[in-house]
Amino acid sequence: MTADASHGVDTPPELVQLLTPEGERVEHPDYDIELTEEEVRSLYRDLVLVRRIDLEAVALQRQGELGLWASLLGQEAAQIGSGRALTDADMVFPTYREHGVAWCRDVDPVKLLGLFRGVSNGGWDPAEHNFHLYTIVIGSQTLHAVGYAMGLQRDGAEAATMVYFGDGATSQGDVNEAFIWASVTNAPVVFFCQNNQWAISEPLERQSRIPLYKRASGFGFPGVRVDGNDVLACLAVTRQALRNAREGQGPTLIEAFTYRMGAHTTSDDPSRYRLADELEAWKLKDPIERVKAYLFKNRLADQEFFEKVDAEADALGKDVRGRCLTLPDPPPEAIFQNVYAGPHALIDEEREQFLTYLAGFER
Amino acid sequence: MTTLTLAKAINEGLRRSMEDNAKVLVMGEDVGKLGGVFRVTDGLQKDFGEDRVIDTPLAESGIIGTAIGLALRGYRPVCEIQFDGFVFPAADQIITQLAKMPLRSLGKIKLPVVVRIPFGGGIGAVEHHSESPEAYFTHTAGLRVVACSNPADAYTMIQDAVRGDDPVIFFEPKRRYWDKAEVDLGAPGLPLDRAKIVRPGADLTLLAYGPMVKTCLEAAAAAEEEGRDLEVVDLRSLNPLDLEVLTDSVRRTGRCVVAHEAPVFSGFGAELAARLTERCFYHLEAPVLRVGGFSTPYPPSRLEDYYLPDLDRVLDAVDRSFAY
Ligand SMILES: Cc1ncc(C[n+]2csc(CCOP(=O)(O)OP(=O)(O)O)c2C)c(N)n1
Ligand SMILES: [Mg+2]
């Protein structure tokens, strides 16, 4: 019953890589990247800091401070590489796991934690960061991103939209419709699919018989597979795709080939459905270690730099934890707020009744 | 008698259904190896194989649409929608096809598809994981809509749902999945479309289904201490409605409070209130009152205890009924 994901493929999938797991810089004929030492160090810092935020969030969930957390562990390079390719004017539509991209958009991590703590269903102003709210319903946001891109196109804006989704999401009707809309409108949108190999307990073979990036050609736009654990390659490929989109060349599908190192969420138990061997193999491809090795080997950073970043991560973790613990619960009347743009007779009535009812307990 | 959680009772019911009829299939996201996110299908793939317990692609419209096709070939698919809030991508297939194809075929086609949906709040979840969408489906003719409230009923109701020839939307009270009770695995159980008086009483009828049945039983126990004798009726089936049992109860007690988690406005309680008022008008001492969610989206989990009708909110409605 299970299909081999390589069926229907003539040539083995090509993976754009600029930095090997061992930290060797390699060339790619179509993609290259010129970065200053400072820029590479800065990417390293991003990777370390977002991993730290993530670890802190998992710990907070374990301690009962968050209802749930969807860890990005293993996907840091895909998110930082693509996130750092954006300009301020570009617009992002994330899923629920894009904490690294949120970081690149200057969204306060505590706001992400607030959503998972249960104090809000969103928590930030999308327009302030050009970073839309997290979308939990799988695939929905891909259509919003295309619509937004259609708007950018009409307005003649020098900007593109980037939308994130997972391997599992590629099965949804909405995602396939988004591909079609983007294609026929030539919308300035980049589809950034993080193929982390799993949709909760379902491996990629349950969703696709061909490598995901190959889907794009059927819809009429280019698709590319990038090493999702290689921050340089993710940055280079995404930069190019965003540039193409801004220049009127339409959509691109990027498949960032990576791995979900943790559980699907803190509610999940992956030992029920996948082998530890797989995890061990992917550990060798760690997105952070390879940048560290590269920086070290090429004497682009010294021990002091790494220690400084670690200290910064410690301080950030502590800060995020502290502010998460003091996040106030919203007052009960918040239930009735923002349902409509203005007053609403029934909601106003229900709020008054409920507050009166609650006051009855205080007497 | 065996002690089972509600989740395990459904699992046993599914197992029995699959043993009885080789055409019964289980399909959905993560129902195979994982056994579903609530473990309701735990072990079924191991025992019945990947051909009968199918981990589907991540697409709800596809799950229901292909289930319809399988049913047209004589299969009996039991589909799992992972959470209430994720049934909407499948709404088109359910409403325009599943519900209406049998009629369109002048009765030639039967679609014995069961759509299992864990519903309701109270588990501290993020958005879309705590909703009560039953009224969307009771509003759609052609679907049977049921909600179990306890392990023993869950065990027989799921089997009846699978055995029947109509499509059934089968709601499971997710915050009660871990509640345990004695289940007689040999007993046939009450027919699927029948309501059950779960606590007889003389002074007022509490109507509930799914997760609110337990809340209403607790409210009735608390009211007893105040000298009020409340009857609690578990609807079990929302469509069709067992109006005989409901009418009889409300005529006897003269008062009725309906409780559900879904918003009161345009909620299923409105149908109950209207129908019972028509049928029991001269017996009523007070209007049929409703208690439920507010006319707002389900709030973030830190506020859900305010939103969910609890024992106090039910008793408050009971007080208001007696105040007439
Ligand atoms: C429409 C819908 N159906 C089901 C779910 C439940 N669900 C949450 S995450 C998930 C798997 C998603 O897999 P993928 O798209 O690969 O993203 P990942 O979680 O791996 O990042 C599922 C089935 C959902 N959120 N939305
Ligand atoms: Mg995935």
UniProtKB/TrEMBL annotation, chain A:
Segments forming domain Dehydrogenase E1 component: 48-315
Any one GO biological process: branched-chain amino acid catabolic process
Keyword Oxidoreductase set for record: yes
KW Oxidoreductase (keyword) present: yes
Keywords: Oxidoreductase, Pyruvate, Thiamine pyrophosphate
Pfam families with a match to the protein in the record: E1_dh
Cofactors (names): thiamine diphosphate
Any GO molecular function: magnesium ion binding
InterPro entries attached to this UniProt entry: Alpha-ketoacid_DH_E1_comp, DH_E1, PdhA/BkdA, THDP-binding
Protein's recorded name: Pyruvate dehydrogenase (Acetyl-transferring) E1 component subunit alpha
Gene: pdhA
From TrEMBL, chain B:
Keyword Magnesium (UniProt): no
Domain Transketolase-like pyrimidine-binding: 4-179
Listed SUPFAM superfamilies: Thiamin diphosphate-binding fold (THDP-binding), TK C-terminal domain-like
Keywords from the named record: Oxidoreductase, Thiamine pyrophosphate
Any one Pfam family match given in the protein's UniProt record, by short name: Transketolase_C
Cofactor(s) essential for the protein: thiamine diphosphate
Name recorded for this polypeptide: Alpha-ketoacid dehydrogenase subunit beta
Species of origin: Microbispora oryzae
